Amino acid sequence: MLLLVHNGMAAICMGTATAVLLSVVLWAVNGPMSTQHQITQLAGVTCNLLGLLVSALVLLFWRNKTRVFLDRICVHQTNPQLKVAGLCSITAILHSSDELLICWDPTYSQRLWCLFELAAFLKSHGRQAKLVVRPIVLGPVAIGVFAGFSMAVLSMLLLPRAGSEGGSIMTRISLLMLCGVSGMWYPISSIRSFYRSIDTMEEQLRRFRLGNATCHCCTIGHQAEPGRVKICDREVIEQCILKWFGSIESFEECVQTTVSSALSRQLGHFSFPVRWMFACSSPLLWTFAAPAIRQPLVGTFFILAWSFAIPAVFMIGASLAYKLRGRMSSTCKDKAATLACALVCLASYMGMETLAGLLSMTVLNYWQGVAAFAATMIFMTSCIWCCWARNSHREVPEAPRTPKEILYAQGV
Predict the structure, then answer these.
(1) CA distance 334 to 189
(2) Is 267 exposed, middle or buried (0-12, 13-18, 19+ CB in 10 A)?
(3) CA quadruple 165, 168, 172, 178: dihedral sign
(4) Using an 8 Å Cβ cutoff, are 146 and 184 in contact?
(5) Cα–Cα nearest to 269, from 309, 307, 306, 317
(6) Could you tell me which residues are beta bridge partners of residue 135?
(7) Closest CA to 39 of 49, 27, 50, 51
(8) TM segments (predicted)?
(9) Of 100, 228, 287, 297, which is most buried, counting CB atoms within 10 Å of its CB?
(10) Are residues 157 and 175 in contact, defined by beta-carbon separation less than 8 angstroms?
(11) pTM for the whole thing?
């Protein structure tokens, strides 16, 4: 997840630059008038695969210069004195931090250290707190969607078109369904499980009590290596809570209100950023950059249209996964729910492809049909996005303040 957050956009940009540069080189080598289908097909496959290779290498080996404080590394884990000093200083570190990035998983709402960090950050920054929550599951989901869409784009390029030699409508639909369902199964199943875990988290935080939160040292029975003293993190954190929040009750109230609302708001539909959706559709640009260079007007509208269409398909699938997030009474029904989400995504895609074909046949020029399809996709995606924004918006109340802070704010 941290690789995607810090290196993901750099990987996409480098992969895109490489694919576009290769497209220009192939265009220069083959000649600007070369429009043979085999040459265009080979160029698209080559650019796609090279873009994948470069983006993977950049994702793994790019050196990001952003300065971060990673508590697991920066707080000493073996020296008791240094560990206590680090724990006691965490509130000052949070206060001086510009942003808090949370790599969330279903156990987050049960861990005392994590909840204290988040509550202290929100309290110290108030409404100006810059909080970014990224569920860990979105790492493999994003990679799965990216790889699946890359396969889908290659299939779009390589599969026989209806009416072509050796091509039929049923052959194309069957192959698309096979590739689509196999590529989307894991992401959709993970998203459904993710939405279920959000419901569990909200229920746990609404009933949060300090005594129910866990610490790693307590779960392992405070076992230490021979000759070392194992301090209890809970005791140190509770002292920090009393110093920072004034009382245990104030901290529990902060977790039940401010922390719960902040996490719920960020873990809603917006948990998969829109820029990630567009990044996942970048293989489309890589594959069709070479044809777009030969036919700039048509190619630009084509890439623009499908770059907006793919996020719309994802949002439709994610919305249906949210509606069907509940665990079914049997394994077969649960798999059927996942299959239904995948089929709806495929139906949306095939509907868009059909619309593109109809528009290209009902207007005077082919480029006008592609332009009309691009305008339709931009409008549709914008409408779906507005619905997401309206349904997902939740206000985050301010952290409860102690009587001393209230008097200070009033100038007493």
Answers:
(1) 9
(2) buried
(3) negative
(4) no
(5) 317
(6) 104
(7) 27
(8) 7-29, 41-62, 131-157, 169-188, 274-293, 299-324, 336-360, 366-388
(9) 287
(10) no
(11) 0.75
Least confident range from 90-104, 144-158, 292-306, 395-409: namely 395-409
Residues 6 or more apart whose Cβ sits within 8 Å of residue 295: none
* Confidence (pLDDT) at 295: 79
Alpha-carbon distance 23 to 59, whole Å?
Answer: 22
Closest C-alpha to 69, from 84, 89, 51: 89
Tokens, residue 144: 């799965």
Q: Which tens digits make up the pLDDT trace of 206-244?
A: 888 888 888 877 776 666 665 565 677 788 888 888 888
CA of residue 213 relative to chain centroid, distance: 28
Q: Looking up tokens 């009033």, which residue turns up?
A: 410
Q: Mean pLDDT across the stretch 35-46? A: 73
- Residue 233: CB partners within 8 Å, gap ≥ 6? 87, 112, 113, 215, 216, 217, 218
Compute the mean pLDDT over every residue in the chain, rounded to the nearest whole number. 80
Q: Which two tokens stand for residue 405?
A: 């802070």
pLDDT greater at residue 141 or residue 61: 61
**Helix (H) or strand (E) run with residue 193 in it:** helix 169-206
Provide the pairing of β-strand 100-104 with 131-135: parallel
Most distant CA pair in the chain, distance:
85
Task: Evaluate whether 58 touches 7 at the Cβ level (below 8 Å).
Answer: yes
